[in-house]
Amino acid sequence: MELALENATTTISNIRSLLNTGSFKPFALACLQNCLDLYSEAIVTLVDGVAVFLTGHYGIANVKVRAVMEAATTCEEVFNQKEGEYTD
């Protein structure tokens, strides 16, 4: 879970860098913003998951980790909704 937290933090940093380039079409910008929101929520969920795990509630921790995994999948799927809309 700690590695997932580190990866999510790095992903947020990368998304912010991409958003700051301004070289994307509106569809891609919306996708990136959506992913930023998803990963930001994922970090909160992971922190909660670690706390729950440390108290021995492994089932709840598992649910939280699955939710984070779903967020990553959702981010990827958003980009697949419209082909050819990545850069100018």
TrEMBL record:
Pfam families: PMEI. NCBIfam families: PME_inhib. It comes from Hevea brasiliensis. This is Pectinesterase inhibitor domain-containing protein. Belongs to the PMEI family. The keyword ATP-binding does not apply. Keywords: Disulfide bond, Signal. GO terms for molecular function: enzyme inhibitor activity. It comes from the Eukaryota. Residues 2-82 form the Pectinesterase inhibitor domain. InterPro entries: Invertase/methylesterase_inhib, Pectinesterase_inhib_dom.
